[in-house]
Give the backbone structure.
Amino acid sequence: MNLCRFKFKTDAVRIGLVADDSTLLDLTSAGVTQLSPLLETENPSAELARLADKKLPRVPVAEAQLLAPVERQEVWAAGVTYLRSKTARMEESDFSATAYDKVYAAERPEIFFKSLAEKVVASGGAAGIRRDAKWNVPEPELALVLNSRGKIAGHTIGNDMSSRDIEGENLLYLPQAKIYDRSCALGPWLRVGASEAEAREWKIRIEISRVGKDVFAGETSVGQIKRRFDELAGFLYRCQVFPHGAVLLTGTGIVPPEQFTLNESDVVRIEVSGIGVLQNHVTVV
Ligand code: DO4
Ligand code: MG
């Protein structure tokens, strides 16, 4: 089941259940005004199945504006969880290279802060590249949506936009390479009810087009992630509380070739087979 936040006709935020490719069921009319209380329940899928049995108003997807599926959760990201990410980062850096090698094998994963919820870009919005960077890339990632207890309540698609030249120059610049205006996109909605075993079967595919022409495409499988999801979530919630829950990006397994950098107006399309498509155009910030 896919759960979304959307606007329809007025500016009020509504909660929807995705019925099919063209229709949303408006849960707001059944008293659901936020995602978080649903994600806090023991069994969000059962709760959604109960709600779906009610007679709910239908909204055409084409007339709704999808919003990022986050409310007050902090967004964090795990890094160097795929072998491809480790090798690409070792190649782009000089004295920082051993840090990537070590963190890939270490017990403690790399986890960094990525975004406040209100800064997250929705599907259809503009994702940012820094004007002071020369080498900008998208990072297509599966995102875990965790409730306040650290339990995985859903999955969504994330784009961890990154400046590789800034990160590659010095690892201490990582926050500047990763956290800036419009650097985090999430959406189009939350997939509720999938187990980790199921999610590990999903494929992640990225396509980047420039003035209507494909300039890069790549694919990986979620099953290539080296660490278990509960291991990543456990480290995030260690010595830390998230009263509103958190979103945790699980790292990238697709890295475009060294000569590739994003341009203004490029279109980035990320598909996760069990969820849907997150699509953003690029803007310079
Ligand atoms: O170590 C830097 C960031 C790694 C990352 O974002 C990733 O592997 O996806
Ligand atoms: Mg990343």
